Amino acid sequence: MSDFPPRWATLHPSNWTSVELTRWLEYVAKEYKMDSEMTDNLVDSFQDLDGRRLLQMSQDDFRAISEQHGEFLFEIFKQMCSAENQFAGMTSASLLPPITESSRSATPSPTGSRESNEGDNDLQGKQKDSSNK
Question: What is the rounded distance in angstroms from the CA atom of residue 126 to the CA atom of residue 120?
């Protein structure tokens, strides 16, 4: 597995092609433990769209495309889009809302997100200590 975030995670959704949209749908399906048939159905349902069109869509539009998961996808997409950061440099794990017990079964937490921050905090603490001497 690659250490780099997927391309869709490095672009603002307005710049997503249908390929990035497909990869995002596949990522969401995997994270929320959807089976392969459901994933294929989602990808097929959204295949003619790109990120710019997705940004223009309402919850009803999402529901019209996927009756079973439209509202769920709309909420995930809107939460991702309302993140304070402007997407560039964010990891894919930070682009999804927290996963609740009702949304999927127990799964390991995303790797790399907390460990790197803790290391940064330790380094900053050491720098402060050395400047106080």
Answer: 10
Residue 6 has a CB neighbour count (10 Å cut-off) of 16
pTM: 0.63
Question: From CA 121, how far away is CA 66, in angstroms rounded?
Answer: 43
Long-range residue pairs from 59-68, CB within 8 A, at least 24 positions apart, any chain: 66/41, 66/42
Q: How far apart are CA 22 and CA 43, in angstroms?
A: 6
CA distance 99 to 31: 9
* DSSP run (H or E) holding 113: helix 113-131
Q: What is the pLDDT of residues 49-61, one digit of tens each?
A: 999 999 999 999 9
